[in-house]
Design a protein that fits this description.
Elements: H1 8-23, H2 27-36, H3 41-44, H4 52-67, H5 75-86, H6 96-114, E1 125-128, H7 131-165, H8 191-215, E2 233-236, H9 238-245, H10 252-272, H11 276-289, H12 295-302, H13 310-316, H14 328-356, H15 363-376, H16 379-388, H17 397-417, H18 429-433, H19 438-462, H20 476-481
Parallel strand pairs: 1-2
Helix pairs in contact: 1-2, 5-7, 5-8, 6-10, 7-8, 7-11, 7-12, 8-13, 8-16, 9-10, 10-14, 11-14, 14-17
């Protein structure tokens, strides 16, 4: 350690630089933990050795902070970065007036929706959230959605880094000169564990970046078309609503009410169509499980990167590291997902437009602005594509809206809402191609099912369980069992 500077402040700064490669913005927290346990950070880089038992306890804590992860996504890293990104452009606390205005808009929206759909209100609480509150509430859902592909990415990154670094341990991870203290140090960690922990941390950064970016764009809890809340609730983010309303020739109150209608309509659908949540989540997860990681592309991305630079590692995963080839099963899953997202968006768009027409003078241009916003995509869609290799974009929402409008014209709101009665009734791509033929195709399908049911009933009715003629005696089956 003779090459270390004599100045204690300079030695502490060297330690800070070494730890920053792992802990980033949490470095000061780590140093504070050291001081709280009576350890002088400067002494760790030279001078008298601390008490061995105390040092061993501290190093165990540092090891857990570096390597611990309950799954393929390091939840602590994801949470910390999401909060940082959420407030990067400002996240002022909501005033009482903002909160009251937003929750009142959600309550008014429910009244207007009652007049145009038989689907009842979601029954949950109404919330006005800051961006940070949105992150806290939705981050668990994002972590579950990306878990299947995150596991593959963590394994691939560990493989690539292991190939590049070999078994050099902590020194290869940006900790040159880190001393081995009594009881062991970070350099004693199992390299495979370190690599997997690093992969989990890097993917946690991806998730955090995605959630934080989304928090600056969304108006509520349902904008992405997939339910993100465990509890039944409707939400508005007044800061984002105000940002969207800037420069529009529409009063803020109208913009807020229209967005509240969309939020409340989404919530009704996700709450009262019990199979829809699992259907959408299942399609995302099924597609993600089939993702393959292009190891050559990933190796090219991370080659030459300073592994102490976590931002550079996160950027490497933003490149084209997902396999270019999709299986036939994935293509079919993707088509079903895009169709389902379009149907959700189309139904919400049609219902919100109908409910707002009599109340909001600018409802038509507002609807068109939201349509274009969803169709064009943005950082949110691109970020999610970097997470699981697909975009959550309802590409055919106009066609879906046309289908629902046709159903209202021919059968009233009941016919429009009946689409959600059962997964088997969900329109497919051919119905979006030809909305006017949906009812005829549905009737033909119903007749076919009725014919099959009748044939089965006839077969089962021709003979009893033992091949005997069916009996009119209601107690015959009981006597046969006895």
């Amino acid at each position: 350690m003779s090459d270390l500077p004599d100045d204690p402040d300079a030695r502490e700064e060297m330690l800070r630089d070494a730890l920053r490669g792992i802990f980033g913005d949490r470095t000061d927290e780590v140093l504070s933990q050291m001081r709280a346990q009576g350890l002088d950070p400067a002494a760790l880089m030279g001078g008298a050795a601390p008490d061995p038992a105390t040092m061993q306890r501290l190093m165990s804590q540092l090891q857990r902070m570096f390597t611990s992860s309950e799954g393929p996504v390091n939840t602590e890293v994801a949470h910390d970065l999401a909060r940082q990104v959420a407030v990067a452009e400002g996240d002022p606390s909501l005033t009482g007036g903002q909160a009251k205005s937003a929750t009142e808009a959600l309550r008014v929206a429910e009244l207007w929706l009652d007049a145009v759909t038989d689907l009842p209100p979601s029954g949950g609480a109404t919330h006005a959230w800051s961006r940070s509150e949105w992150v806290e509430a939705t981050l668990p859902a994002w972590q579950r959605l990306v878990a299947p592909v995150a596991s593959s990415v963590a394994d691939a990154l560990a493989t690539v880094l292991r190939d590049q670094l070999g078994d050099e341990g902590a020194g290869a991870l940006g900790l040159p000169g880190m001393p081995v203290f009594p009881g062991g140090g970070l350099g004693d960690l199992d390299p495979a564990t370190m690599m997997r922990g690093l992969g989990s941390a890097v993917y946690g950064m991806q998730v955090g970046q995605a959630a934080g970016t989304l928090s600056r764009e969304v108006f509520g809890a349902t904008d992405v078309g997939i339910p993100l809340l465990e509890d039944h609730a409707t939400v508005l983010l007044p800061t984002n609503v105000a940002k969207f309303a800037e420069g529009l020739d529409t009063p803020y109150d109208e913009v807020q009410l229209y967005l509240a209608l969309r939020e409340a309509a989404h919530a009704r659908l996700f709450v009262h169509v019990p199979w829809l949540r699992s259907h959408l989540h299942g399609l995302v997860e099924r597609y993600a499980r089939g993702i393959t990681i292009d190891l050559d592309a990933l190796e090219e991305q991370v080659r030459g990167i300073d592994l102490s630079d976590q931002e550079a590692l996160r950027g490497a995963l933003s490149g084209d590291v997902f396999g270019l080839h999709t299986t036939e099963e994935q293509e079919a899953t993707l088509l079903r997902l895009e169709t389902a997202l379009a149907l959700v968006e189309g139904w919400v768009s049609e219902v919100a437009a109908t409910a707002s027409l009599a109340h909001l003078p600018h409802s038509v241009p507002l609807r068109e602005m939201i349509r274009r916003r969803r169709a064009a995509g943005g950082p949110a869609e691109h970020t999610f594509k970097s997470l699981v290799g697909l975009e959550l974009r309802p590409r055919r929402s106009r066609d879906a809206a046309a289908l629902f409008a046709h159903l209202v014209a021919t059968g009233g709101p009941e016919a429009r809402d009946a689409v959600w009665d059962h997964p088997d009734l969900l329109p497919g791509p051919e119905d979006l191609d030809d909305p006017t033929g949906y009812l005829d195709r549905r009737r033909a399908q119903d007749e076919e099912h009725s014919d099959v049911d009748a044939a089965l009933a006839q077969i089962l009715g021709e003979s009893g369980p033992d091949g005997d003629e069916p009996s009119d005696d209601p107690d015959a089956e009981d006597r046969r069992t006895d």
